[in-house]
Design a protein that fits this description.
83% helix, mainly alpha, 5 helices, Ferritin, elongated, binds fe (ii) ion
Length: 166
């Protein structure tokens, strides 16, 4: 089905992110279980809670605008989660795996930042101001998560991984 207008594009992007957030709830739990560093494990769990909130915010936007949800698969997030799983499979438990999961998680956050940035811009263009403000809250949480992941990597995990014998 071809999209006819910006409203349909906005909705299509929302459906995409709804799938993505739902898939990420499960992926973040798995990453928390595989993390060795307790701060990283807690970080994944905290963001899992936030991610459940992101999904609810999208549902709130559906309600607010009377959007009928449609099932959509986000191939990009599927691919990013697959990459994260491969990295887990290809590393031993410990700091190298932690560092690998941080890189995978930051790719996800950047994808989400790009997606919510576009969603906010689309909502603003369409005059959906309340939806734009709801989606901006999620955008801020994705940005904060990305920053926290950088802090964890640069604040010790990468260093520990370097000390691990080859
Ligand atoms: Fe999210
Ligand atoms: Fe996120």
């Amino acid at each position: 089905m071809k999209m006819k207008n910006l409203e349909e594009l906005f909705q299509d992007e929302l459906f995409d992110m709804h799938y993505a957030e739902d898939a990420l709830i499960k992926a973040l739990e798995k990453m928390a279980e595989k993390a060795t560093n307790p701060k990283l494990a807690q970080g994944f769990r905290d963001h899992k809670e936030e991610t459940a909130g992101h999904k609810r915010r999208i549902e709130k936007v559906y309600e607010l605008l009377g959007i009928k949800p449609r099932k959509e698969v986000c191939e990009a997030i599927k691919g990013l989660i697959k990459e994260a799983e491969d990295l887990i499979g290809h590393t031993e438990e410990g700091p190298v795996r932690d560092a690998a999961m941080i890189t995978a998680a930051q790719k996800v956050e950047h994808y989400e930042i790009a997606s919510y940035g576009s969603l906010v811009a689309l909502a603003n263009s369409l005059g959906h101001m309340e939806a734009a403000s709801i989606l901006s809250e999620t955008l801020e949480e994705e940005r904060a998560t990305d920053r926290r992941l950088s802090e964890l990597a640069e604040g010790g995990i990468n260093q520990e991984a370097m000390q691990q014998a080859a």
